[in-house]
Design a protein that fits this description.
By secondary structure, the protein is of the alpha+beta class. The strands form three sheets. The chain has a five-stranded antiparallel β-sheet with strand order 2-1-5-4-3. Helix 14 runs antiparallel to helix 15. The structure holds adenosine-5'-triphosphate and magnesium ion (MG).
Length: 470
Amino acid sequence: MELSTSSQQTDSLCTLIFENSAEAILVADSNGKIIQANPSCLNIFEYTLNEILGLEVEKLMPKNLKKIHESHRKNFVKNPEFRKMHSGLTLIGIKKSEEKLLLEIGLSCVKSGNEFFIICFISDVSDREKWQNKIRYQQKILRKYLGVTHSLFLILDTNGNIVMINKVGSNILGVSEKEAIGKNWFDRFLPLDERESTRFFFNKMVNGEIEDTNTHENQIINFEGKKRLLEWQSTVLRNENGEIDAILSNGLDITERRISEDAKKEALIAGQEIERRRLAQELHDGIGQAISAIGLNLNALEPELEKFNHKFKTIYADIKAKLDNTFEEIRAISKNLTPKILEDFGLARALEYLGETIDKSTDVELHLSLHGDLKNLDIKISLSIYRIVQELISNALRHADPKNINIYVTRGSDEILIIVEDDGKGFDPEKVTIGLGISNLKSRVELLKGQVNIDSSTKSGTSVSINIPL
Ligand SMILES: Nc1ncnc2c1ncn2[C@@H]1O[C@H](COP(=O)(O)OP(=O)(O)OP(=O)(O)O)[C@@H](O)[C@H]1O
Ligand SMILES: [Mg+2]
């Protein structure tokens, strides 16, 4: 646009701004009559210019506010006070169709001779309010949910300091939400032995290497110094620029659940041991005694043997040898069922004996390699190791058809390492149906806070390694 004089230039500029402003502008006189409205204003209130000119400004607001607004207007004319836009005050407006609007209004005025003009700058914030209400409502639901859930919710900043924790969390920790905020999670609420590994995964998340974790467990230590076991799932939180600025974790206190699971496992294993003892006793006192009675009867026949022919004598000797063998086998089974040898001579001797009895009954080469002091072990640990090795040898013999079975049991300074490997068929631990054998073995190891690793392939056979901390 070409502009020639400076006053013309100013006039044209004002008109241009007035006509094109995205903000609604309305001008009223001191009596509240509307004398000018820009297109944005007409658009908001849905009037034409002809319709709006001459209306009272109070027409654009709810009827019940008419009186109070009139008195405000009169005061404003007497004592004008400029009100900036976005002062946080939201007012209600009324469209021509009587529909309500939410508005933010800035006020200004101009005096020209005796005339006084009120200028209103109007923003339609109905949509913004709707969204804010929605967000407030969702926040309310979230707060309610965080209050009723049994889970602990925790948000840590990238240094591991607590940004948010819900009521459940503060109850578990034994500190108020206020006291918890700002404290370092790792230094303050994790036992020493959990800090390094937990921080390792936390740092991986902070560095963007892991987005979400699978369920994992770790202990926390509460205000009273008591440990609780929690099952966690965590995810990263990113800001509007996509940068990771916090880690959100959801934890479930499984302390009691784990105690009752452990008690069940322990009861199952104890039940098995009782049943084995009963069986061993039955074998020894029942079948064993019966066989030795038959043996005695056979012995009684011996002085008479001279009267019989060679064939009879050979059959007699054969029966006697088989009976002795059966008796020995029953004794061996009975001994393995209740490894008394374990209590009397310790784990090393018991494992050697186990190896000897199995070696004799198969063609498989059994290699036993024992290291460290296996004598002075808690009977619970030595019985578990004995049963574990027994199950793994039995699995190799029953399922693998191996040539060799190697057994290593090594006592280190703070753990016992057990490896049982065979060069048989191998199997896919993901595909086979796990029986009582492996599931009991895992229960035993879990009860001792150890770990099992099964490595098996059709080419090289199976290797099962187990660590048991001491
Ligand atoms: N050393 C092994 N070589 C090949 N397959 C094996 C071996 N050990 C285990 N398996 C496979 O894993 C399965 C599960 O073993 P698990 O000991 O749990 O049960 P099981 O031996 O079949 O029965 P049980 O409850 O009497 O022990 C076996 O049935 C077998 O298919
Ligand atoms: Mg088995």
